[in-house]
Each structure stands twice: as C-alpha cells, then as structure tokens.
Amino acid sequence: MPKTTRGRFARLERYLQQVKKDVDEYLDSDEYKHRFMPAHILDAVYSYIVRTSKTLRPAVLLLSYGAAGGDGSAALPGAAGVEVYHTWTLVHDDIIDLDQKRRGQPTVHAEYLERAAAELGYDRSAAQHYGLTIAILTGDVQQAWAISLFGELHTKRSVDAALVLHLISDLTLNVQTTLVDGETLDVQYSRVPPDQLTEEAILQMLWKKTGILYEFAARAGCLIALGRWEPTHPHVSALGSFASVCGLAFQLRDDVLGITADERSLGKPVGADIREGKRTLIVHNAFETASAAQRAVLLHILGNRDASQADLDAVTHIFWETGSIDYVQRLATEYAEKARRFLAELPVSPYRDLLYEWSEFVVSRGV
Hints:
The chain contains 18 helices and two strands. The protein is mostly helical.
C-alpha cells in the first residue's frame, strides 16, 4: 500500500495481518484437507485463500465480537467461515464475469483450463469446460465448508447451539438469497440501457452484492459475544447497520478503483467493468451528465469485450470529464461518515476505534 495510507492505517494494517494469520492457520489443517479430493479440487479450494488479501470480512466479525464485549477466540471459527463463504462467491463471480485474474493470479477457471491442457492433454474446448467445471465444484465445496465452520462455533468453541443454528439459517436463507439477487441483477442490468436505470436501483443492487455479507459478519460477531440469539439487541442493530452502510461504501470505492487503479494493485485488469458493460454508479452518473457525443462513445464501447486500450482510455476520460468518478468517491465517503454514527451506540474500546478506522480505510484504499 502507498505510504499515504500505510502510515495512516498502520494500526489497522497490523490487526488485519494478524486476522489473516489466525484465519489461515485455522483453515490450514489436515482435518479439512483430507476431505477435499482429488488434488485439483484440493488445490482449487485453497487457491484464493492462500493469496495475499486483507481478510476484511473476518476482521469485521472479530472486531464486532470485541466491540460487543467478546473475549478470547470463541468467534474464530465464524471468522474463518465468513472468509471461506466469501471465497466461494468470488470463484463463482469470476465465472460469471469471465475474469481471468483474481488477486494478481489466474482465476480458478482460468488456471484449470491451462492445467487441463498441460496435465490431462485436453484440447482447448474440452480444457475450457474442465476449467469451468472445477471452478463450479470448488465453489460448491467451499460453500459447504463455510457452513461446517460455523457449526464449529459450537463443537469447538462451545457457543450456544441454538445461536449457531440461527446464524447458519441467516447465512443460507437471508444472505445467500440476497447475494444471488444482487448478482443476477448485476448481470441483467448490463443489458439494460443506462438511462432506464435509477441511482437507487443501482445502489440497491450494489448493496445486495456486497453490503449484506458485511452486515452479517458484524451481526454474527456481536451475537457470538452476547452468547444468545437476540437480533434486535441495540448493539447488534448498531453494528449491523454500520457494516451494511460501510459495505456499500466499500463497493463504490471498488468501482472507482476498477477505473483508476493500476493492475498490480487491483489484482485484475483495469477497465474490466467497462468491457463487461457493468452498470456501475459511475456509468449511470456519466450518462446523466454527458453530452450526446459522449453518450454515443459510451454506448459504443461499454459491454464490448474486445474493446482496445484506447477505447478504455476514451471511456475513462469521459468519466473524469463528467465528474462521475469524483461524484461516486464523494458518495462513498458520505456513506462511510454516515456509518460511523452507528458506532456511538457501542461502549468505548480499542475494537470500536479500529472499526472507525476501518470505515475510513475502505473508502481510502489505493490513495
């Protein structure tokens, strides 16, 4: 991370590194590994997990656990579960978006296309299908593993069994259906003329894709600290609302970085959203403020997977000219500021301070 943010968020960075270490150590166990077969599935299941990442969702769960008075490692299986759950959504999302890189390395379906050709002698068509097959099955295994990890809150940390069942039910019936809703809308919206979508509709779609899992992580951490299923408890509500709004701010910043970052820091090609025709809020705002000539350029290039670098540069230039990138960044910052107000409901603690810092970090990444 550049110096400007590394110094500012040094304490949070240290905490995130410790969370990454603790979660990785928990997941790096033969207890799990011997169940993931054959070797291609085993390698694929751990592929994204072992790569460099911020482990933000597990951190939110553990920080919320601490902010609500939790002590010790009781919440660690839940943090590991959130990380694995998030990972399967990435594996499947990469299939949907046809992305070739994740965290600077090949996506699962891209990696196993190449391995099928090199190791199994498949022709290109068969290898491509094999890569997609391994990625789908990998996500299936990870989803099941995530649910099992939440079960370990009870079997390994003696968290109340009824609470654990409620958390699993919430994850599978509320979070998952909301995520799928948002992902489906994201795909559908890419074929809808930009002027037929509203800002509200796009924000709701973005929240479903990202905000819901952050909200769950915060609520789960707080509930584990309470030791009982009390979803209307003021601290549960406050932390859930905080993470929910921050999750939307995170996604808005992500969309900005998808246009303005460099590929090395982004971990995937810059401009992928343009080639995929994603109806981000940047696109929506640009269409609202662009000239007729600029709209024509946008309509010609957005959604063209063969768009050249010159095409991407032309669209990016319009985004800057119309003020759309600045608009979305300002909105992300406003959401983060709004989210921080919910933290006033919680007692003063180092964990609350870190949550405050995290809310600043999510809209400052890449600066």
